[in-house]
Specification:
single chain, Dna Ligase, domain 1, D-amino Acid Aminotransferase, Chain A, domain 1, 5-stranded parallel sheet, 5-stranded antiparallel sheet, 32% helix, 25% strand, binds adenosine monophosphate, binds glycine
């Protein structure tokens, strides 16, 4: 069995690591990959245009291709692979609109009566400004509808801030074409949860829920990042809550997508807020989350390959057992470069702790320097995932492992999972 993985981040490294654990004889190929992926399989220098990727999959007689990031999915890579008769895991461009267009996602949720924040879509600043003044007030959330590398959301505490955000998105185009449409959205409160489901378009198998940490600073302060860490499981995500999310959010969304003639297959990432009125959707993504994948997949006890292959072959997930999970907990800490998220400094020589069964080291922004030294090559450099018998043990071990990732300007959050820690401490005092 030969698998081609498209992408170069910690997420893809974690997917490869999980496949390798499940199937030691698997032949793994990654493009562009990274130095971590290169220890698990072969890496092929960046092939970005779809024709070249199809040619690569053919030349290498790849059995299944897994697409990591959203951009190639939204650009129609899966459509191209399918047209070429190649097996691929991921949604078509039309289905990937669930992530690539927040306006589209809101429309689907409206049709499917899926609980989410009230929102209106605009193509110009004037009408959006009027909506804030007359119908939304503050706090309010202003979003570029299109793909903006995770940066297109501005949570605004005041009307003035909202007006500024609207002007910057609609007039100054700070997020480029992603801001051609913008959303004015009701502000929600509550804890966030990331739930991945593998779906054939009809049936869906939920994974372990995780919690991401988007802000750069301790206690969830400072600017938003791609994610500074994650943990799984989350004690808030009871079986009853997940059943409710599957019944009121995932199934109606998949149904609405089928009804539109654009069934969603692959990995649906449901970003939830647990509001006082119950779980509501913050966003959908059309691929595995980063860094949640680095926390969730090391906990997997059952097969990843089997459901992925079924979906890639266009088969039903009927009869595939639900995912099963290891006992205990996983905590992932991202080690970032000085200056991240604004202007990360790159090119620093890195030393890493060894990967063990209990501590997995995932490369994200690394590359081999000319002199054979591993150097930093991005904002989020490495993610370390510690597995422990319980949350506190995993959290402690994750911090200790992150401290062993050394390069000039390295920093990380020491409080990944602080909400869970507070919950567990509260439970002990009850
Ligand atoms: P997104 O890129 O859609 O995940 O949004 C980034 C972050 O902005 C989310 O993880 C939330 O923390 C926050 N956010 C997005 N939408 C809302 C909302 N309607 N109310 C409150 N916070 C939000
Ligand atoms: N962790 C957030 C994302 O993958 O979009």
């Amino acid at each position: 069995m030969r698998v081609l993985l498209i992408g170069s981040g910690g997420r893809e490294h974690a997917i490869a690591d999980t496949l390798r654990r499940e199937a030691p004889s698997l032949d793994l190929l990654a493009t562009p990959g990274n130095p971590g992926l290169a220890t698990i399989g072969r890496t092929v220098p960046s092939v970005s245009d779809p024709d070249a990727l199809v040619a690569l999959a053919r030349a290498e007689a790849v059995d299944v291709t897994i697409v990591g990031p959203e951009a190639p999915l939204a650009a129609g890579l899966v459509d191209r692979f399918r047209a070429a008769g190649l097996r691929v895991f991921g949604p078509t461009a039309a289905a990937a609109q669930l992530e690539a267009s927040k306006a589209f996602a809101k429309d689907v949720m409206r049709t499917a009566q899926v609980p989410t924040a009230r929102a209106e879509t605009f193509r110009d600043a004037a009408h959006a400004l009027e909506a804030v003044r007359t119908r939304f007030g503050a706090p309010v959330v202003i979003k570029a509808s299109g793909l903006a590398a995770g940066k297109g959301v501005i949570v605004c505490a005041t009307r003035d801030a909202a007006e500024d955000a609207i002007r910057r998105i609609a007039d100054d185009r700070v997020f480029g074409e992603a801001g051609r449409e913008l959303l004015v959205e009701e502000f929600m409160t509550g804890e966030e949860l990331s739930l991945f489901v593998v779906t054939d378009g009809t049936r869906a198998l939920p994974m372990l829920a995780a919690q991401d940490h988007k802000r750069v600073g301790a206690g969830d302060t400072g600017p938003n990042t791609g994610g500074m860490g994650a943990y799984a499981p989350v004690s808030l995500a009871t079986a009853a809550l997940i059943d409710d999310v599957m019944a009121r959010i995932v199934e109606p969304t998949l149904h609405a997508m089928r009804t539109r003639g654009t069934p969603f297959t692959g990995l649906l990432y449901v970003g939830l807020m647990l509001t006082p009125e119950g779980p509501r959707v913050v966003e959908f993504n059309c691929r595995f989350g980063d860094p949640e994948t680095q926390a969730v997949l090391p906990m997997l006890a059952s097969s990843l390959l089997e459901p992925v292959l079924r979906v890639a072959r266009g088969e039903s997930l009927a009869g595939v057992a639900p995912f099963s999970w290891r006992d205990g907990a996983a905590v992932t800490t991202v080690v970032a470069a000085a200056g991240y998220p604004e202007t990360p400094r790159t090119g620093a020589a890195i030393t890493l702790p060894d990967s063990t069964d209990a501590v997995r080291v995932f490369h994200a922004g690394t590359r081999w320097g000319d002199d054979g030294v591993l150097v930093s090559a991005g904002g989020r450099v490495v993610a370390v995932t510690a597995l422990g018998a319980d949350f506190a043990t995993a959290q402690q071990a994750s911090r200790a492992a992150a401290a062993q990732v050394r390069f000039e300007g390295a920093f990380f959050r020491h409080d990944i999972g602080w909400r869970e820690a507070a919950r567990l401490a509260g439970a002990r005092h009850d």
